[in-house]
Amino acid sequence: MVEEKQKHNATVLQISKEALQMAVKGKNETIFVVAVVKDRLLFQDKHNSSISNEIIAIDMGVSISNLKEPISMTFYHSDSQSPYNTTISASTLKSLTYISYIGCGISFFFLAVVLFMHTMLRRAKSDTSTTILINLCAALSLLNLTFLMNEWLSSMGNQVICNIIAATMHYSLLCTFTWFGIKAFYFYYLIIKLSTTEIKKIWMKMGAVGWGMPAVVVIILGGLKKYGEYKIYKEEGGTVSMCWITDPVVHYITNIGYYALVFSFTVVIFIVVSVKIFHMRKSNPRSAEGSKKNAFTLLGLACVLGITWGVMFFNVGPLQVPSFYVFTILNSLQGFFIFLWYYNSSSAAKAIDQPSEKSSHSGISNTTHCNPYDSTASKS
Questions:
Q1: CATH code of 365's domain
Q2: Are residues 32 and 149 in the same domain?
Q3: How many domains does the chain have?
Q4: Which of 87, 145, 285, 363 would be a feasible disulfide site paired with 233, CB 3.0-4.6 Å?
Q5: 33-42 CB contacts, 8 Å cutoff, 24+ apart
Q6: 73/121 same-domain check
Q7: Are 122 and 263 spatial neighbours (Cβ–Cβ below 8 Å)?
Q8: Are 72 and 118 within one domain?
Q9: Containing domain of residue 39, as a range?
Q10: 171 in the same domain as 38
């Protein structure tokens, strides 16, 4: 019996008496070798996938076959990180990978177009809503870019590069979540009708929170060495690696937990704004012909508030694989949806601002409110 123990697992190899008798037959003695190969990169294929664990080889000096008593290998391992390390079929992984790369490539292109249009072609000064949207585009652009580069940089086998790309991708993800929340907070400002002066004062703090708070989190996690190689396991065997968070607790707190808080707030704002749109349609007969625009408005709202990311909460049981596909398709194309929203923002904004225009004629308010989607302010 040969036994190998590690920190989190053990391997017990039992060679049957029959196999030993066949090995020593006709010999005074026999030497058998058990080799454990730990460098899994030696067995990578053209898709950069590798064997899930160590490779065990047994050489007894002779060819042995037709054993009645098998050679037994027992593997003991810890399941402490099994919920975090995902296991899916090779075909599903391949499909999701193609969808992700194509979608993220399209998304990055259109986000770059939005940033170019805003920076180079826009002459008028941007309002707060547009500025928030542009910051969200910048965060999403960085997220898509780091994702597209991740597997290539991971295949280099350089730990420092892997840590940097993992930290950068995590930073861009946290920034994206934060700007979702800031966008929702801006809608809240429109609902309670703060003055323009008040929102400008708040905006300075928004910018610091949007880019500064994620940086603090990532720096702390980097100091604690929480970034490195993350493995996706195939059901058929083998793994695909990427550079990401290595501690499941950190992932659940900083990503799942943080997004759950942002999601709760953005959903409430989404419902309130949706109700206002439907009330406007009922009170104004002329708005019936704009039902398609209202539907587009709601779809755009869900996109810029990051509601579509909520699909991750259905990643359990039989819904796991379908949720992977829905999540991948919706969010890898998010940049394209934002481009359409940005391009059509002028017409979409009218569906939101009509209630505030009515209140302006009542003489209750004498405040200037900015459209949530357009650069043109609606004066009341």
A1: 1.20.1070.10
A2: no
A3: 2
A4: 87
A5: 33/57, 33/58, 33/59, 34/2, 34/58, 35/59, 36/4, 36/11, 40/239, 41/157
A6: no
A7: no
A8: no
A9: 2-77
A10: no
CB 348, CB 296: distance < 8 Å: yes
Q: If residue 154 lies in a helix (H) or strand (E), which one and from where to where?
A: helix 128-154
Q: Which residues pair with 234 in a beta bridge?
A: 88
Full-model pTM: 0.71
In the structure encoding, which two tokens stand for residue 226, read together?
A: 């929480």
Write the pLDDT tens digit of every residue in 263-292.
Answer: 999 999 999 888 887 777 777 655 555 566
d(CA 168, CA 104): 16
DSSP character at residue 80:
T
Q: What pLDDT is attached to residue 284?
A: 67
Sheet with 49-50, side-by-side order of all strands: 49-50, 239-245, 227-234, 87-88
Q: How confident is the model at residue 363 (pLDDT cuts 50, 70, 90)?
A: very low
Starting at the edge strand found earlier in the chain, the sheet holding 2-5 runs 2-5, 9-14, 72-77
Distance from C-alpha of 72 to C-alpha of 1, rounded to nearest angstrom: 9
